[in-house]
Write a structure and sequence with these properties.
Layout: H1 2-24, H2 44-49, E1 56-65, E2 79-87, H3 90-93, E3 99-100, H4 112-115, E4 123-124, H5 126-133, E5 137-144, E6 149-156
Antiparallel strand pairs: 1-2, 2-6, 3-4, 5-6
Length: about 160
């Protein structure tokens, strides 16, 4: 009997919390779809957040910050970062263990023409991915060592 009352109280509490959250999630005019965000080419923010990426020559990336506008209640992720960097890290990974990646779905705006290449040989290096993501990020990190490119699609938590 006590378990049923506890389960009922827990259910009512969760329903109330969800109702409050959904009512608070109103678009305040700051909502901008991820695909409409413009890409950046500066490298300093990437260097400071992801030192494991090595020396970055060029970058093409964007972030989308959650917690504004329509997504004010979504969590625990606060932002998503996606794009590619041209880096010297490929030399360090040349003889490391990797897994072949058959196809990478580029987000809108990152077409093969942007990178200057039309064909890629993406690999996933578990040890390198772990270094890039650390204990603060989740996501994908693929490397094309022949072209010195690293593709990232990362969310922080």
């Amino acid at each position: 009997m006590c378990r049923k009352i506890t389960a009922l109280l827990l259910s009512v509490t969760m329903l109330l919390a969800m109702t409050v959250c959904l009512n608070a999630c109103k678009d305040d005019g700051t909502h901008s779809p991820f695909t409409q965000q413009s890409y950046r080419t500066d490298t300093d923010p990437l260097k400071s957040r992801f030192p494991a990426l090595g020396e970055i020559d060029r970058a093409y990336w964007k972030t989308y910050i959650f917690g504004r506008g329509l997504y004010s209640c979504i969590g625990p992720t606060s932002y998503r970062l996606t794009g590619f960097v041209s880096t010297d890290v490929a030399d360090k990974l040349m003889y490391k263990q990797y897994t072949e990646v058959k196809k990478v779905d580029f987000p809108d705006g990152i077409e093969p023409e942007v990178t200057g290449f039309t064909d890629f040989e993406w690999r996933k290096y578990p040890e390198f991915t772990e270094k890039v993501l650390g204990n603060k990020y989740l996501g994908l990190v693929f490397v094309d060592i022949g072209k010195n490119l690293v593709y990232i699609d990362i969310e922080n938590f």
